[in-house]
Amino acid sequence: MGRLAVLVSGRGSNLQALIDAVHQKKLNASIVSVISDRTNAYGLQRAQIAGIPTKVFPWLKGGCREDYFQQIADYLEDLQIDLVVLAGFMRVLSPNIVAQFPNRIINIHPSLLPAFPGLNAQRQALEYGVKFTGCTVHFVDEGVDSGPILVQKVVPIQPDDTEETLAKRILDEEHIALPEAVELALTDNWRIQGRRVI
């Protein structure tokens, strides 16, 4: 059974999807810690309701990113984590934590990468005029939303979509994609060849 740590900054709805998948035995994993950079992240309450230990590493404005993430990396090592899941964690990881957990950190992003990386992906998709967008779960590398892709789900864009309506439909697919990707990442049934996860 894989040992997961989930990092959140906000509502934690993708965390809830993982909690539900574990409870329903659809995901052979144990969430051993939920970590946040914000003391008021609702995801922490979701974890506490589910009986999962939580830890807050308050973001230090003007502090050293490498030192900040080294603290988290050391904590993860102490917990013997198999996979780190970024589920709405709104910080770009520093290279030292990525190097410490190679191909053991995954992130979910609300677009079909490599299209529309970074913030406001739904707005970017609407402004660009694409007919389809979706969500992507990918391994984390040192770039922004640039690592090898594990799972993608496609969401058609409707003519009357707003940022909010599109975001909600994408989020529904995220709740399916993330447990799928975690299950895959915890197996030995994949390899990375170039940029491809096979």
Element layout with pairings:
Elements: E1 2-8, H1 13-23, E2 29-36, H2 42-49, E3 54-56, H3 65-78, E4 83-86, H4 95-100, E5 105-109, H5 121-128, E6 132-139, E7 149-156, H6 163-185, E8 192-193, E9 196-197
Parallel strand pairs: 1-2, 1-4, 2-3, 4-5
Antiparallel strand pairs: 5-6, 6-7, 8-9
Summarize the structure.
By secondary structure, the chain is of the alpha/beta class.
Report the total helices. 6
Secondary-structure element pattern, one letter each:
EHEHEHEHEHEEHEE
In total, how many domains does the architecture comprise?
1
Largest sheet descriptor: 7 strands, mixed
CATH architecture: 3-Layer(aba) Sandwich
What is the fold-level CATH name, i.e. the topology?
A: Rossmann fold
CATH class: Alpha Beta
- Beta strand %: 15-25%
Terminal Cα separation, in Å?
A: 22 Å
Helix content range:
25-40%
Order of strands, main sheet, comes to 3-2-1-4-5-6-7
